[in-house]
Design goal:
The chain has 236 residues and is mainly beta. It has three helices and 13 strands, in the order H-E-E-E-E-E-E-E-E-H-E-E-E-E-H-E. The chain has one domain.
């Protein structure tokens, strides 16, 4: 006769063997400061002019990763994307050495090669619940606070952009998701380049770069080019 203890162990093994294996997970992390950054602000200087960035926020929605072998996610063909954040979601970008992370999300075991997301302009009505929690982001996808020093004069600023675009980034290295494992994906946003001229030789006054401003398109281009993604363990 089998000892009751061994019978309980055997039953547990049988139950575990019959369960579906735990899927993999992806945890999305964000970094805003340049690699090797210290402190809680970013300083950018060109000549005698200086911008100090003290906070930077972005609004994203429909953040997902796509399998490497496919340009689109076709579930009927087995090409399943992993939705990391349906959104909209506010991301307060860390400007120092640390990264912030969203909650881990289940993902099918696969090799992923792209991350797709919308830099999203939140609007009243459509996003009333989101804006109730983040009223300062109404009409904006990007919001920055800091100070701008030019010609010996310094002033504080709050900048907002209505930039709205769906972006697809190739990952710097494949993101491999395995059963029962959590794979970290880092979305790096180089905020230090947001307020630079096209040739990067001069600073852009944030007061001239808001909606309808003469430098709005330049800063939108800078935001687009500042984004990159790679598995966190592939970061240099």
């Amino acid at each position: 006769m089998i000892d009751r203890t061994w019978a309980a162990v055997l039953a547990a093994v049988v139950v575990a063997a019959c369960r579906e294996p735990r899927p993999g997970e992806v945890v999305l992390r964000f970094a805003g400061g340049p690699p090797g950054a210290h402190g809680d602000s970013v300083v950018v200087a060109r000549g005698a002019d200086t911008i100090v960035l003290r906070s930077a926020e972005m609004v994203l929605r429909q953040v997902l990763v796509q399998p490497q072998r496919s340009g689109e996610c076709e579930e009927e063909e087995g090409e399943r994307c992993a939705m990391l954040a349906p959104g909209p979601v506010q991301v307060l970008l860390p400007l120092g050495p640390d990264a912030v992370a969203l909650e881990p999300v289940a993902a099918a075991p696969d090799t992923y090669g792209q991350v797709v997301f919308e830099v999203y302009r939140a609007t009243p009505g459509r996003d009333s619940t989101f804006l109730a929690a983040h009223p300062d982001l109404a009409g904006f996808s990007v919001r920055v606070t800091g100070s701008f020093s030019h010609g010996g004069a310094r002033r504080d600023f709050t900048f907002g952009s209505d930039y709205n675009e769906v972006l697809e980034l190739e990952l710097g290295a494949p993101l491999v998701v395995a059963l029962g494992k959590t794979s970290p994906l880092l979305l790096r946003v180089d905020v230090a380049g947001w307020f630079l001229s096209a040739d990067q030789a001069a600073l852009v006054d944030p007061a001239t770069a808001g909606p309808e401003g003469p430098n709005a398109a330049q800063v939108r281009d800078n935001v687009r080019l500042s984004l990159s993604a790679a598995p966190a363990d592939a970061e240099p």
